[in-house]
Design a protein that fits this description.
With 433 residues, this protein is an all-alpha fold. It has one domain (13-422). The chain has helices at 3-9, 17-47, 53-66, 74-82, 93-100, 109-116, 120-146, 151-163, 166-171, 175-191, 195-208, 210-223, 225-252, 256-268, 292-297, 303-327, 332-346, 364-373, 375-391, 394-404, 413-422. It is globular.
């Protein structure tokens, strides 16, 4: 890298021509991450026997609703799934379970129902292309937000997130689209540009994955002023977009809430797909669960313990964050610090998986700002942010599991716990050859 990159890394803020060179370096790093994400994402998707499983779990329930049947009725969805004219012989029972048991709110249907109107082939390709495009756009907007603080750090960290985001392409999970849309909305609101686009993007994001982006919406409520106005407008548009779908589902299946609750309960039982404990069928390995319950379950595998502990700690952290946000006058620096904190806090109390961590893109402008200011806080910010982005990426874990799979530990209780924590588990949404 050029001299400006070297200076930027050691905390000297470049100026004039050096700033231009640093911006080019940051942009090159971001483009490298984008290219890695695109090429490896498509390659892994093609190499996986059961790709786009999470998208199937949206596509077929929406197609079922178009046929005037309940998307929450497993037998109705399975009938549409089997009569689709597609060869599903390679789908495992694991894949079929995810495909036929709808776990999203009806609010997600207005967005996904358009894709269900198309045949599976063009539909899943369009979804994959959209997922790739909007996530790269979101990363560029985050880079644009941090470029004036430190372009090299911003470009490097944004590229790092993209380079580890292949799970979004492989699984087709809507988290990639929902989180990317909320990042577009944040950029629009904070730059006061294209506010209508920001409102629509934020509304779609809330409709698709409210547990990913709800706390970001709460920040704009607490920030007051024009931010609060935008947040209320977003909520109004969300209701406008989602109410017809909710009424439609309720008309077809008045008991959809009970059916959805039953599905989620079965997934969360001891040893189930969404069980955060050590015996989970789908909580560890690639696409792992990342909430705080996973950590506490290793000390005591009891939902009453790990849920209570997670909720109490998360509530305390959220309360501190909310009080500070309310008392501080909004400024660009405080806004990015608040969004960085809430993006990490979002992962803690509720069910989230590895691919939801792309929301940590919102930590990058704050990290670049603190790094540019120098000192111990800046170094700690860079260390913590980089570690978080690496540990939540896809490629680092592939390498880690390849290594740990060849390590033979002695047969002790501690060694067994290490193996459970680090075991190579077949991903819930994609099966590797």
């Amino acid at each position: 890298m050029c001299k400006s990159t070297f200076k930027s890394f050691f905390g000297e803020k470049p100026e004039g021509r050096e700033m231009t060179n640093a911006r080019l370096d940051g942009l090159r790093l971001l483009l490298l991450g984008s290219l890695t994400f695109l090429l490896l994402g498509v390659a892994f998707e093609n190499a996986t026997p059961g790709p786009m499983t999470d998208f199937k779990g949206l596509y077929y329930p929406a197609k079922t609703l178009l046929g005037d049947h309940s998307p929450y009725n497993e037998s109705d969805v399975e009938r549409i799934y089997r009569s689709d004219g597609i060869d599903h012989s390679s789908d495992t029972s694991f894949v079929r379970e995810i495909t036929t048991r709808f776990v999203y709110l009806p609010t997600s249907l207005p967005f996904t129902i358009f894709f269900s109107m198309l045949p599976w082939g063009p539909s899943h390709l369009l979804w994959m292309a959209l997922s790739i495009a909007v996530l790269i756009l979101a990363a560029f907007l985050v880079y644009n937000s941090g470029v004036n603080y430190d372009p090299v750090i911003s470009g490097c960290l944004c590229g790092l997130v993209l380079a580890g985001g292949e799970l979004i392409v492989i699984t087709g999970n809507p988290a990639g689209i929902a989180i990317s849309l909320v990042i577009v909305a944040v950029w629009c609101f904070l730059r006061n540009r294209f506010p209508l686009l920001g409102i629509v993007c934020f509304a779609l994001s809330l409709a698709i994955k409210p547990h990913d982006t709800g706390l970001v919406w709460l920040y704009f409520i607490l920030a007051g002023g024009v931010n609060r106005k935008r947040a209320w407008q977003t909520l109004l548009v969300t209701v406008f977009l989602c109410l017809p779908a909710v009424i439609w589902v309720w008309h077809i299946d008045p008991h959809w809430i009970q059916e959805m609750h039953s599905t989620l309960t079965e997934y969360s039982v001891r040893g189930g797909m969404n069980d955060p404990g050590p015996s989970s069928k789908g909580g560890h390995g690639l696409d792992m669960i990342v909430d705080m319950q996973v950590m506490f379950s290793f000390f005591r595998d009891d939902p009453r313990f790990y849920n209570t502990a997670s909720y109490l700690i998360s509530a305390l952290l959220a309360s501190v964050w909310a009080v500070v946000t309310l008392r501080c006058r909004p400024s660009p620096a405080r806004t990015w610090l608040a969004l960085a904190a809430v993006s990490a806090l979002t992962m803690l109390p509720f069910y989230h998986r590895q691919l939801d961590t792309v929301l940590l893109l919102l930590t990058i402008p704050a990290c670049a700002m603190l790094w540019a200011e120098g000192g111990l806080i800046g170094r700690l910010a860079l260390l913590v942010t980089t570690a978080g982005l690496i540990l939540s990426g896809f490629l680092p874990w592939i390498i880690f599991y390849a290594i740990i799979g060849n390590v033979h530990l002695p047969a002790t209780k501690l060694a067994n716990q290490i193996v459970i924590a680090c075991r190579f588990f077949q991903p819930r949404s994609c099966c590797w050859p």
